[in-house]
Design brief:
Structural class: mainly alpha
Subcellular location: Cell inner membrane
Main location: membrane
Number of helices: 5
Number of strands: 0
Membrane topology: Multi-pass membrane protein
Family: Belongs to the TRAP transporter small permease family.
Protein name: TRAP transporter small permease protein
């Protein structure tokens, strides 16, 4: 079961990384095209803002999910754990931090899903549903929710058996 999850984990990481790379390249190309069109007015770019909004939003949320999955997000560090003498209490503290993260992500996921499902608005240039602008939020929120649950599971396992010091999901971060 853990090996299956490890394979899924690697595949998801690679997928998220490639999504971010492709979104970044698309943004760079559209911005470059916009600059060229200003000097050589060959076509109208009335759709520029609409597509850029879609791409930037997706890049932000898929990027957030990527750093969440790989534990690459910046933080002030875990400077509290080293001051907790008991190994089990250290893992209880980390479990509480993970629980707070889970609560935040669960609230984000719920409201992101609500806004995606409830919107009836359409974009101006292409008259496409704004659901396409919002869909990246519940997708990435769901991914972060799953990984928060995984992290809580790992912290609970460490509380029960601190001598194992299992750290699945954080072992292959420098791939």
């Amino acid at each position: 079961m853990l090996q299956l999850f490890a394979c899924f984990d690697r595949a998801l990481r690679k997928t998220l990384e490639w999504i971010c790379i492709l979104l970044f390249v698309a943004i760079a190309l559209i911005l470059t095209l916009n600059i060229v069109i200003r000097f050589l007015p060959l076509m109208s770019m009335h759709w520029f803002d609409e597509i850029l909004e879609l791409l930037y939003g997706a890049l932000i949320f898929y990027g957030a999910a990527t750093v969440w999955v790989t534990h690459s997000h910046f933080s002030v560090g875990d400077w509290i754990s080293r001051h907790i003498a008991s190994v089990r209490l250290r893992f209880v503290y980390r479990l509480i931090v993970e629980l707070c993260s889970l609560a935040f992500i669960a609230i984000f996921f719920k409201y992101a899903l609500d806004i995606t499902l409830q919107t009836d608005e359409q974009t101006t240039a292409f008259a496409m549903s704004k659901k396409w602008l919002y869909v990246c939020m519940p997708i990435t929120g769901g991914i972060m929710l799953l990984y928060s649950l995984k992290n809580m599971y790992l912290e609970m396992a460490k509380i029960l058996k601190p001598e194992l010091e299992i750290d699945l999901g954080r072992e292959d971060l420098n791939h």
